[in-house]
Structures are given as C-alpha cells and as structure tokens.
Amino acid sequence: MKYRHRIIESKLKKLKEHFSVIVVTGARQVGKSTLLVYLFGKNARHIVFDPVTDDLGARRDPEFFLQQNKTPLILDEIQYSPELLPIIKKKIDQDRTPGQFFLTGSQNLSVIKSISESMAGRAAVVDMDPMSVPERLGRSGPALCFWLEEILRAGKGTVSLDQLRRSGAVQARAGLFKMLWRGGYPGTLDLPDDLLADYFQSYIRTYVERDIRVIAEVSDQQTFSRFFGLAAALTAQEVNYSHLGRELGITPQTASRWLNILKATYQWFELPSYHGNSVKRLSNKGKGYLTDTGLACYLTRVSSPEALATQPLLGAIFETHVVLEIKRMFSAVVSPVNFFHWRAHSGAEVDLVIERDGILLPVEIKCKAKITSADIRGLVAFREAYPKQCGIGALIASVEEPYFYSKDVLVLPYSLCGNAEKGTIRV
Fold this sequence. Notes:
Number of helices: 18
Shape: globular
Strand order of the largest sheet: 9-10-11-12-14-13
Structural class: alpha/beta
Radius of gyration: 22 Å
Largest sheet: 6 strands, mixed
Helix content: 25-40%
Distance between the termini: 41 Å
Strand content: 15-25%
Number of domains: 2
C-alpha cells in the first residue's frame, strides 16, 4: 500500500529533537506504527508486542530485553508489555538523549496513563486519528494551512472571501456520500467498495475479541458488540447513560463503564459542555462521537454511499465528519485549543465551540445547501450570551461558495474543513 503523508509528521519530527520518549496513541489500525517506521525506522529497530505471548521476553525480564535491544527503538503496542515502562524511565533518567524510544498504544488505560504521569518532562504524548480527507488524497504536508487557525487569529476581525475561494476545496471532488461512507482507516483506502464490509467486520471482531476481552475484561462480548452499534447510531448526540442501558437491558452504570472503554480504546470521544459566567442554566451532558464515519456507517448497516444519502442518520454522520476533520486539523497546531459544545435549557445550542486565548469561535454544522435564519439561531443565542468573547460565527454546510449570512456569521463549504492548500486568509 502506498504511503500517504500524515498531518502530524512535522510535529513528531520536532518533538523527537527535544523528548527522550515519543508516545503515539490512537485506535488500532490508524497507522501509528507505519508513521513511526516511515519517519524513524531507518535508524530504529521496530518491535511489536503481543497480548498473549511473550516471545521476546520483554515481560519476563524487561531489563535484559533493553540490554539486548539498543536505542533508538520503536515499541509497538506498549500496553502489552507494561513491565518495560519503569526500566525505560530508569534508563532515560540516566541518559536524557532525545529520540531514544518511540512507543505506540491503542488503549488509553492505566498503562498509557502511567507514561504521562511517571515520565513527565521526558515523554511527549500525541494522539493519532484515522486519516483526514487531505491525508487520504495525498494533499497534506509541511505547508498545511488551517483556515480556522486564521479565523481564530482574526478574533473579531473580518475574513477575505476571495482568499477563502482561492484556498481550494479538496473534499468536494471526493464525493460527499462516498467520503463519509468509506471513512479514514488507512487499510480501507485501496479496497474496492464491495470489500469494505469485510474489512470492518474483521476489524470489529479483532477489537472485541482481543482488546475488549484481554484488556477490558468484558465477559458479555455479544452485548458489548450491540452496545458498540448503538453508540454509532447515537453519534453527534448528547450522552445519556440511561437511554443506552435501557436499549440493551443493562444498567446505566454498565453503559457508562462500557462507553469509557470505547473512549479508552479511541473509538469514541466526547465534547464537554461549555460553561461560562454569563449563562448559568446549561446542560452538563457531554456530546459524543464515533471516531470514524466509515465504521459508524458499517455499524448502523448503511450498505452504500447511495443508501447513506437517504438515511435519517445523514445529518449526524455529516456532523461527526466535520468535527473530526476540525479536530484533526488542530492536531498539528502548536498553540492548543479547547473544544466544547453548548446547549442552554432554553433549547439554544451550538454544535462546536472552539476556544483559544479567551476567544470563542462557535460553529454550527448543517448537511444542507439552503441556509435559513433558523439554522443560525444557536449562533445568535451564543453571541448574545458571550458578546465580549465571541469571535466570528461559522456555519459549515453543503454550500459551494463561502459567504457572509450576516456580518457575524460566515457560511463555509464543508470542503474547506479538509483544505490542504498553502495560503493565507487575509483579515
């Protein structure tokens, strides 16, 4: 399979120059080891650990293992050999040379958590998602420019529509429904459509039988598989443990624990509810998303791109895609941002709120081409609640050209969410 460049490559190269340990975490099969071998494999030995067998003796005698395998080392699925972690810590305490260990993990359980806690200042942890649209199309690289980054930089300034139009629309050429239906796992990119279901069936079977049984110790794997499918059907909705449990005949406590397992294995993530001093009566429920739209389509039995076009879930799948693309865009940005959703008890809501340096950028997401005043109602309510902090509001939709719906609301094509063209948005 042809290697496709990833957005976080330049970030990893920079981290390698300053940290002794680099940890890349993410769901299984998102390309963690492929990326590390491509970037650093020329000088580093690549070792893959198994959850059952200890062929290399890393668990039995970790100190001897590291004596026999000199750095730099790429250690794949480190959660299967946690005994190595204290020995690695001891080694780098004696020698802080950058770029000694490159670790991957597909479970964010106690093992991965202990890395960031016990190796503070020694290890850099980077989360990796399935591929963004520019990555799938081979359009990402060190010249990547983020239009949202520029809008945040503008604060309450104005944005040039001409520059937005010139910046490219790589997603539009990919076909919206097919793009959503296939998703971004690297293993699916070169598969014909009729083999996609076989890929996801094998993926879920391996995930449930290995990760869930071995790591999470879930005994009722059949019910857990149904729970996974239900979570996919509820993507882009507020999390309700009672609802999840009632549908499957399990307790809310079990539903909460199982959802935490999905989060710990990078199959699910949540946006916390935004709270501020101006509005007191806000919902405190998080909003959850499956981390790949292709997997979500498979789990909800969407058989083709054409079938997705008529699905009631289309809006939720579309929102999931846009949120994931924005999240991936910022994964390579040095300046950190925070993501939230916003919902007042009055009913007003905003799908995504991006916060940085005291500026709030509210984002609404609509899978439609004709925008009405009802579609921006949440953005208007959010601005009224936070007039001093709110920057330009964005509504991302299935439109062909960017335009201002009002002086404070910019309507953007969904294609810009994956823009990988070099350029600058003038403000």
